[in-house]
Amino acid sequence: MVRVKKLIYCFFSRENFLNAGFLLGTACFVLAGCADGTPVPEPVSIDSGDNTEAVGLIPAQITASRAIDADSEPENWLLHGRTYNEQRFSPLDKINNETVKDLGLAWFHKTVFDRGLEATPIVVDGVMYVTGAWSMVYAFNAKNGQLIWSYDPKVPGDWAAKGCCGVVNRGVAVWEGKVYLGSFDGRLIAMDAKSGAVIWETNTIDKQLPYTITGAPRIIDGKVLIGNGGAELGVRGYVSAYDSGNGNLLWRFYTVPGDPKVGFENETVARIATTWKGGEWWKYGGGGTVWDSMAYDPELNLLYIGVGNGSPWNQYIRSPGGGDNLFLSSIVAINPDDGSYVWHYQTTPGERWDYTATQHMILADLDIGGKTEKVLMQAPKNGFFYVLDRETGRLISAEPFVTVNWASHIDLESGRPIFDPNVSNYEHQGKLTYPAGYGGHNWHPMSYNPMTGLVYLPTQDIPMVYAQDPGFAERKMAIVAGVKLPEMTDDEAAGVSTLVKAELLAWNPVTQQKAWSVSRPAPWNGGVLSTAGNLVFQGTATGKFSAYSADKGEKLWEVDAGNGIVAPPITYSVDGEQFIAVMAGWGGAFALLGGPLAELSESKSQGRLLVFKLGGIEEFSVVQKQHNVVVAQPNNAQGDEIDRGKALYHDHCQFCHGNRVVGGGVVPDLRFMSEETQNRFTAIVLGGSLRARGMASFANKIDIAGAKAIHSYIAYRAGQKKFVVKLSEQSSLPEP
Question: Does the annotation mark 354 as catalytic?
Answer without folding.
Answer: yes
